[in-house]
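re: ur question from the group chat, yeah i did fold both. here u go
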Amino acid sequence: MVVQIGPFELPAGGSRTHNIDIPSYVGSVRVMVVARDKESYGRAQKTVIVRKPLMVLATLPRVLGPGEDFVLPTDIFAMEDHIKNVSVRIETNDLFELKDKASKSIQFNKVGDEIINFHVRTLKKIGVGKVKIIATCGSETAIQEIEIDIRPSNPKTTESQQIVLEPGQSTNASLLMDGMAGTNLGVLEFSTLPAINLEKRLSYLMEYPHGCVEQTTSSIFPQLHLAALSELSEKEQTAVTRNVKAGIQRLLLFQTSSGGLSYWPGEHDVSEWGTNYAGHFLLEAELAGYRLPDQMKQRWIEYQTEAARNWQNSGSGARERESQLLTQAYRLYLLALAKKPESGAMNRLREETNLPDLVKLRLASAYAIIGQTEISQRLLQQASKSVVSYRENGQTFGSAFRDKAIILEVQTITNDRKDAFQLYTELAKEMSTDHWLSTQETAYALIAMARYSKSVKNGISRLSYALDGGKGVEKSVSNKIQKVYVEEKGEKRSLKLKNTGQSTLFITVLTEKISKQGTERKKSSKLEMTVYYHDMNGKPIDPSKIKQGTEFVAEVTLTNPNKQKIYDQMALNQIFPSGWEVRNTRMYSVGETSDARYQDIRDDRVLSYYALNPGEAKTIRVVLHASYQGKFYLPSVYSDAMYDHSIFAQIPGKWIEVIPS
């Protein structure tokens, strides 16, 4: 517990009293005062015991899941002799139900403490649970209030349908809301430009569980351009501002001493594409009025300038060579955008033999920015806008779809309108499906499409919609996406739509929900995974029933069955039951090692990142402690390639128990 107040002014010879509210706490605190007068300093400190005649301390897990049973241990402290007969009562909000009496009593014969257990169950809902413990003895009362997240065990899923309405046409649609209670939400999106499934795609980026430099940038970069895609409420604009500011601060964690950015926070090696991509966001954020941390931009420019001047293509294969050429072209474009162009490096790159078309296009945008339009136009004319199918797990995290987005962005920057709408339509068609897209693909498409949308003007049209047979609501429609949110009301809601304007309308009907527990199944593709639990001596244990106080290890072995392909940028998601606590092995040694390149250890989960050479197997270990009695849900264990969704493995979840020791 830390409470800080001040600073305050105190006149010569004066005194002042401060009252400090202490949260629910049992023990002692150290009160420290530091004083300064010009160049003189002084300090004083004193240890103060925090206590009342009657005190209460209840302990809950850090999080809970829906439908879980648990024992809530409540420690009652009688700190003075007159505390004898104590009544203890529990109150909860509507996310809990009690499995035994809400009020219990305890008798004290002397100063000390005793534990009372309350048996509680979470309902099959999610939200913020609230628990209140009230202990009374005569005129003495002690109260403790606890808030706890009741989080879903399964990820959010979305279902969408695309509708095109010509003037005068009408149609019916439905929203199936059969997920866990309180998690269902319907969204109606409409625009005069082809639908792009904005709600789903943006939510995917913002809620993506991993946070490398590329994924962090992808979660915030499109938000800079969101106003060009969608009508934003004041609340939404405030959220965008908050998210962008937080993203800028997080990217600071990736910057190395050289000025480049690493792939994971704290690493020393620079991610070249990540440095480009994050720097692109920072430059545009600054142009949008956001303040960058001191020296962050300057250090980035210094690194990029040196890298541009010293660049040599060392790629060993055709794909690696093209990735390195594109990385250099992107770097040169960004230096031009930062008003620090490296014309010599630009000219050297232009003279490379067999320059790929995408590199020519990106380089053309750099020349356009510095005013050399003749060279820019020559490069545009030389380059084909066709793309070949491919997918990278590393390098530039590229794909044919991402490259199409880059081409659309370049066309907008260079004012090359030929076939731009057709390319926008191709991107929109893929975005509007439920097909998986990587964070790089999704973000780059949103950025490019926002730029294009800002540059075109479409007429105003109109849409009428009615829910559940109710009265129709009229809406004006433009090229900016408008959204109507449909609340959960039963398991199905009906929708009637009619185009009452003069232009074609593109509509997305989307349902978001979280599936109920136990619906997962075992599946895998191009990846083998086994999960094994053992005690600290290596003896196998059954996780279905573990004694409270047991310390044990969850061991996941992942194997690449492909004898030729490297699996790069792999992620392992492990969410643990509420009754188990993760032991953070960074804080102290427990004798267990892991093959993870980087681990993100959170309250109830561990996200591990690794790579696999052809035929290689790696083992990732997490040390756990069975802390709370009860019945809890162990969610599925899932691993995949973050930039190739065809590589994955999943082991379904199950119910487990923590029993008395």
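okk and heres the other one u asked abt
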Amino acid sequence: MRRSRWSACFRFGRLWPVVALLAGCGDFGDGGEFIDEPPPPDGPPTGPTDPPTTGSKWQGTLVEDDCGRVKLAYVLIDEVCGGTEDPFYMDYFHAPIMRDGVLIDDRLFAVDATNLWVLDMTDADEPKREALLAGFGQPMSVATHAGRLLIAGGDEGLLLVDVTDPASPFRLSDVAFDGPALDVWIEGDTAFVATGASGVAVVDILESELSLRTVLPVPGFAAAVASRSGTAYVAACDTFATIDVATGALLGHRWIDNAYQDDILVAPAKDVSLAGDVAFVAAGRYGAVAMDVTDPTQVAPIGNCTLTDDQSFYASGVRDFGGTLYVAGGEYGILPLDVSNPATTCSTLATPGLPAPPEDDLSCSTEPPWELVPWAETWVPPSVPPEGRDPLQTLPVDGRVFAFGDATRIGIRAIDVRNPANLDEKLGRYAEPRLTEGIAVQGDAVLVAGKGGGLFGVGEDGVLAKTADVPEAKLARAAAFLGDGRWVLGGLSPQTGLGVVYVEGAPNPIDFGTQIWSGGLAAKAATFYVPTEHGVIAYDTDSSFVEFSSGREAHLPQSVAVGEDHLLVASPEWTSSLEIDGVGATPLAAIGAFGDQEIASVSRWRKALPRRVVMTGDVGDVEVASLGGEAGVTLHGEGGPVSAELPPGDYVAATLAGSRVYAVAVDRGRYRTQLVTIDLFSGAPQVMSVVAFSGAASGVAASAERLFVADGDRGIRVFDVASPTPTLVQVLDLSAEAQP
């Protein structure tokens, strides 16, 4: 497989969208993985703030801009066929999107490269989740044999799973390979597994114990495989290959011309389906490429079927059923092709239009970053969008077509059930909405804002459970408790689109002329505090309020904390926070994470927006700040300000518990969260541990014995914090709370 080699003075041609950035020239199965040390500073590029489009991922490279500055530029490359030698290659598949599924009786078994989902399809109009299970590797693709489930489980290889009880599948056997199991195909009693650069593994599956028969070498990178009558047909990223299964001999290989542009693979061979003497290969913007396989030793392209002018179309999957080929076309939807006469389906080669890179006309601008970067679009996940059309793969069966995806860009796993006679007609849908945003704790009570929100409590058995429905929580972004235990929730008014605060027991919500964001709400005694563009509003529950002026203007959502005798407030773009009391506002010492020069860099903003979380307690005032992936913590204690570097990341939330800070950093590109424990006891911040898990944290709060992390796609992760390394003790799934 060729890799991208760009010179520092590369001039952008016509290829995938490019964003230029400044540079110097888990799951509940185990609760996440413990990292012995912070990730390396030069670890995987997280890419720009926006998630990649469906079927792709970001890749970084150094270029020189028109101003003569060296920058880190990001291009969109195929998620399967791009960056295959990256040590973090498999991590990128954790993005929240359904990838594949198989129907066994009236149960649909679906995978998202993190978990195994079991859906009850007894009523196709209303699919219901029966189980969500970890412990099956990194499930990329599924197939069925003799009523059992076969899972291509990434680095764990091929898994054979007993699904006699659909609610409790269990692993019967597995076999590992030298490369990741990316795709599985069944013919008779044999499984063919695409394992990337390691080739195609051939596995006997007749018995309950899987047995590796042989591995077929493949030119290129085996992304997907099909077989028929002793020949394996392999989509191998930059080639298409035919292999004799009995001998392992390469019969032939060929691919379309001009598959590379400027060393970027723009026609990735990533999936394959057989129809007659034609192999149809999913190839990104090139759609479905028809390969003549009449003679496996003389394979040749016939043509391709694509939408040349519709750049939302990106083919990732192909499936043939009943004379129709269903092409999973990403944000376009599904493209059906008549393959009753497959040799004529795609008879000419068409070159699709590729999106031109955006002009970097802002690179020398003197405008401040908050005027140039659309930060509001990515500060928090957007509202749940209308039901979308965003499949990576399909499963056509009698009377139905399942579409898996929907999608990386919006962070929602979904499966559409569509009418094969009219794909615009939706018969049913299953979706996992974004569940949480803000979280607060008081004693044993836990308040969660978001679609899965409500009031929860820790029982005598130490288990977190729901204690009360709070309809207002499902509309909220931010959460807090008053001193008397009443909850306070802040969000956007459905009527005005501006800020609104709900207080437990209050007859009416309280309207504000400013938006309220997660982290933009604090409370103490009988008063809650909401930051505004020019200060903080203190609102007493007896309906009186006062506004404290900061003397500054905030351009991004502020963080606010309340201490014994002062407020602490900061906007992410400020290089110093403010202490506000009855006398006025006093700047604290500048944070160590970034300075005036860094915060003025549009390029850094494009990589990752500035973030700030402020906290205050007995140890003093504390700040966690990040910009462009670089992060730090500052303690303003009795001995003066002390700063320390944090592991790289986009730090979205933090909480102070005694002399410890628990901070969460989210990598949206790899769909990964780091929980970082920072000790302040000595007066100098010190990173004690880093625990990573698959998911997107949106908030964190702590009690005396427990840490509660709001996971936007799962619910609430509960950690024991008796030791420096938090230990996961429970995951409370809130998906049922968000169902209509």
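fwiw on the second one: The chain has three domains: 18-90, 91-351+374-432, 439-738. The longest helix spans residues 602-607. idk if thats what u expected
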